[in-house]
Design brief:
The chain is of the alpha/beta class and 475 residues long. It has helices at residues 12-29, 36-45, 58-67, 117-126, 146-157, 169-183, 186-191, 209-221, 241-262, 289-304, 323-339, 358-374, 387-393, 403-408, 433-448, 456-474; strands at 31-33, 48-50, 53-55, 72-75, 81-85, 91-95, 100-102, 109-111, 130-134, 162-164, 195-199, 206-207, 225-227, 232-233, 268-271, 275-278, 283-284, 309-312, 343-347, 349-350, 355-356.
C-alpha cells in the first residue's frame, strides 16, 4: 500500500502551546468587532462586549471547535462533486484575475481587464492539476460591481468551482443570484455549491463590517466559507514565528467562534497567510521559505482542530516567469503538498500578489503534478515486487524488453515542458528554451481549449444581471 509522505512543522506540544496562547489573546486582549449584529451574537453566546471590543472566553472557542463539520465538499458549475476536503489530499487553486496580467502573447505586464478571463479562467479549466480559481475583481468595472462581474466572467470560462471575496452583503447577494441562475434555482445551488466564499479579518485582531457580513451570511445559508488572516511578521504581527502563528490562529478562532455561533455545523475552512515583511522593501513576501514554513505550521494547527486548511503556493515575488519564480513556487508547492494542506490557492501570482500570469499557471500545473507524484509514497502491495522477473533476468541482464517494463513505464513522471536530453541537447543551451516551451503550451491551450458554453437563456439572464448592477452603481 502507498504511504503518503507527510511533514509536520509543529510538535504536538507546540500545537498545544500556540493554541493556549491564542486562547489567552482572545480572552485577555480581545478582538475589535465593528458589526453590531456580530457583537450581539457573540455577547449572546457568552463573550464580553465593551464598546467595540469583544473578549472571547476559552469555553466559547472550544464549543465552536466541537460543532464544525470535519469535511467540506465543493462542486463544479454542473453540480458534480469536484473536491472533498477531508485531509487526505491537496488540491491546488489558481487565481483568475489581479490588478495586472503578464500577457503571454505580448510578454508584457499590462492592466487586467474583464476580457482576460478568456485567458486565465480558460487555462484553469484546461489544466489537470488546477481544481478551481479565485474569481477576483477586474478593475475595468465600476468599484461596486467588480466582484460580481469577476464571478460571472469566471463562470463563462470554466466549469470548476470559484472563490469569491465579496465586500459585504449586497455583493454576496448579487453573486449568489448568479449562482442560482446557473444552477437552475437557489435550492439546487445550495445542495451542490460551486462557490467558496472568502473573507479576511484585518490583522491584528480586527473584524470589520464587510468581511464579517460575508462570514455571517455564509453561516446563515450553510455555504462553505474560508476565513483567512494575512499577517506579516514585523509589521502587522510579532517578528517571531510562534508569535505570528499565535496571533493568526487567534484571528481564525475568533471567526470560527462567530460563525458557529450563528449556525453550528456550518462548513468552515481554516485559512492563514502568515508571511514576513522584507525590511529592505517593506514588501509582504509571497516567495519566502519562511512563508512556506509558517503555512505548514498553520496546517498543523488546522488539522489539530479537524478543520481543512486553506494554504498558499505556486506564487512568487518575481515579476516574470524566471528562475526565481520557479524556485519559489516549487518550494511553496512542495511544502504545501507534504504538509497536507487541503486547498492551496494563489497559483499563478507574481510580483508579490499584484500580477497574474497564465504562463506561471502552466508552469505550476507541471510543478504540482511533480510534487504530487513525489509525495505519494511507495506502494509495496500485490504485484509490486516482481521477484520472479528479477530471478529470470538475473545478474548482468536488463529489463528494457520485458513485458513488465512495457506495462509499467508510464507510471513514472514524464514532462512535456522540462527536458531530459542528455548530451544530445548540446548546442541548444538557450536559457529561454524552457520558458519558450511554457509560453508555447500556454498559448496553445488558450487558442484551442473549448469550455462547454452555458445555455443561451442562462447567458441572457447573466447579461441582464450585469446591466442591473451597472445601473445601480451608475444611477
Amino acid at each position: 500500500m502507498n504511504h503518503r509522505i507527510r511533514l509536520s512543522a509543529l510538535s504536538e506540544e507546540s500545537v498545544t502551546t500556540i493554541h493556549q496562547a491564542s486562547l489567552q489573546i482572545l480572552d485577555d486582549t480581545g478582538v475589535f468587532v465593528e458589526h453590531p449584529l456580530a457583537q450581539e451574537i457573540l455577547h449572546g453566546a457568552g463573550a464580553s462586549v465593551v464598546d467595540d471590543m469583544v473578549s472571547i472566553p476559552a469555553a466559547l472557542v472550544e464549543r465552536a471547535l466541537e460543532s464544525h463539520p470535519r469535511q467540506v465538499t465543493l462542486y463544479n458549475r454542473d453540480g458534480e462533486p469536484q473536491l472533498l476536503l477531508d485531509g487526505t489530499r491537496s488540491y491546488f487553486w489558481a487565481i483568475a484575475s489581479d490588478l495586472y496580467i503578464l500577457d503571454p502573447f505580448s510578454r508584457t505586464i499590462r492592466d487586467f481587464t474583464s476580457a482576460d478571463y478568456s485567458l486565465t479562467a480558460k487555462l484553469v479549466d484546461a489544466c489537470p492539476h488546477l481544481i478551481g480559481a479565485d474569481a477576483g475583481a477586474p478593475t475595468d468595472c465600476p468599484l461596486g460591481v467588480r466582484r460580481q462581474v469577476g464571478y460571472a466572467r469566471g463562470l463563462l470560462n470554466m466549469r470548476k468551482p470559484l472563490l469569491v471575496a465579496p465586500a459585504g452583503r449586497q455583493p454576496l447577494a448579487d453573486i449568489l443570484e448568479v449562482a442560482a441562475v446557473v444552477a437552475g434555482d437557489a435550492a439546487k445551488f445550495r445542495q451542490a455549491p460551486f462557490i467558496l466564499i472568502a473573507a479576511m479579518p484585518t490583522t491584528p485582531l480586527g473584524l470589520f463590517r464587510g468581511p464579517t457580513e460575508s462570514l455571517l451570511e455564509s453561516a446563515r445559508l450553510g455555504l462553505p466559507v474560508v476565513w483567512y488572516p494575512a499577517a506579516s511578521a514585523g509589521t502587522t504581527a510579532p517578528c517571531s514565528p510562534a508569535g505570528l502563528l499565535a496571533l493568526t490562529n487567534a484571528e481564525v478562532l475568533a471567526g470560527l467562534t462567530l460563525h458557529q455561533s450563528v449556525r453550528p455545523g456550518a462548513p468552515f475552512i481554516y485559512g492563514a497567510m502568515p508571511s514576513v515583511t522584507d525590511m529592505r522593501t517593506l514588501q509582504y513576501s509571497y516567495g519566502s521559505p519562511d512563508f512556506a514554513l509558517h503555512l505548514a505550521a498553520a496546517t498543523d494547527l488546522a488539522h489539530s482542530y479537524g478543520l481543512p486548511m486553506f494554504s498558499t503556493a505556486g506564487c512568487s515575488d518575481a515579476l516574470s516567469v524566471d528562475l526565481q519564480a520557479a524556485v519559489e513556487a516549487t518550494i511553496l508547492c512542495l511544502m504545501a503538498q507534504l504538509s497536507g494542506a487541503d486547498l492551496v490557492h494563489d497559483v499563478g501570482l507574481l510580483g508579490g500578489s499584484l500580477v497574474v500570469s497564465p504562463e506561471m499557471m502552466v508552469l505550476c500545473d507541471e510543478i504540482i503534478g511533480m510534487v504530487t507524484h513525489a509525495g505519494r509514497g511507495v506502494d509495496t502491495g500485490p504485484g509490486e515486487l516482481p521477484l520472479d522477473l528479477i530471478d529470470r533476468v538475473g545478474p548482468g541482464g536488463h529489463f528494457i524488453t520485458t513485458d513488465h517494463t512495457l506495462a509499467n513505464f508510464r507510471r513514472f513522471w514524464h514532462s512535456d515542458i522540462f527536458l531530459r536530453e542528455g548530451l544530445s541537447g548540446l548546442g541548444c543551451e538557450d536559457p529561454d528554451r524552457v520558458r519558450d516551451r511554457i509560453n508555447s503550451k500556454t498559448r496553445s491551450i488558450i487558442e484551442s481549449h473549448q469550455v462547454e458554453p452555458l445555455a443561451d437563456e442562462v447567458l441572457q439572464e447573466l447579461e441582464g444581471l450585469e446591466r442591473k448592477w451597472l445601473s445601480r452603481v451608475e444611477g
